[in-house]
Amino acid sequence: MRNLSLTIPPVVVLIVTALLMWGISLVSPGFFVEWQLRWSMAVAITLTGILISLTGIVQFRKAKTTIHPMTPAETSTVVTIGIYSYTRNPMYLGMFLMLIGWGFYLMNPFSILFSFAFVGYMNRYQIIPEEQILESKFGEEYTQYKQSVARWFV
Questions:
Q1: Domain containing residue 59
Q2: Which of 44, 89, 122, 135 would you call most buried, defined as having the most Cβ atoms within 10 angstroms of its Cβ?
């Protein structure tokens, strides 16, 4: 099997994960929560994810650096302010929260658990390769940033 590092755009991984979560919800037992509560939880979590992702994009744009996830070598600066002082990957964290929101909409614990497959995939095939490139390009500046700010959130 060929190396998947930096080959599948994160938005495609998001969509595939969401579809698999939906498939899981069709074949495994879910739980019942009143529709209004279910919808409210799903919307709140999903909107939080969208807001976090968009904040990361805006801060990259302000820094005039690339947001293209397939070409981290084109990054022109290490962004360490704003949301990037809390998480090194707000766009991916936002996507993960969108999947959690989707899982709550589906009301299926197995689907919610499966959303963590997104985290595993992103760590292995997207984030670690990105970090290797950024460490090579920015050296100590990126290494210090990496040591002081969590990959996801905690």
A1: 10-148
A2: 89
Query: CA–CA separation, 137 vs 75, rounded Å?
Result: 9
- Tens digit of each residue's pLDDT (9 = 90 or more) over 60-119: 999 999 999 899 999 999 999 999 999 999 999 999 999 999 999 999 999 999 999 999
| Residue reference for tokens 């302000």 | 62
pLDDT tens for each residue of 22-62: 999 999 988 888 889 999 999 999 999 999 999 999 999 99
Contacts 24+ apart (CB under 8 A), 30-33: 30/106, 30/107, 30/108, 30/109, 30/111, 31/107, 31/108, 31/109, 32/107, 33/107
The residue whose two tokens read 């210090």 is 144
Number of separate domains in the chain = 1
Domain assignment present for residue 154? The answer is no
Q: Is residue 107 part of a domain?
A: yes
The answer to whether residue 153 is domain-embedded is no
Question: Any residues with CB less than 8 A from the CB of 78 and at least 6 apart, and which?
Answer: 134, 138, 141, 142, 145
- Per DSSP, the residues of 56-82 read HHHHHHHTT----TT-GGG--S---SG
Cα 148 to Cα 13, 59, 112, 115: the distances in Å are: 28, 19, 29, 26
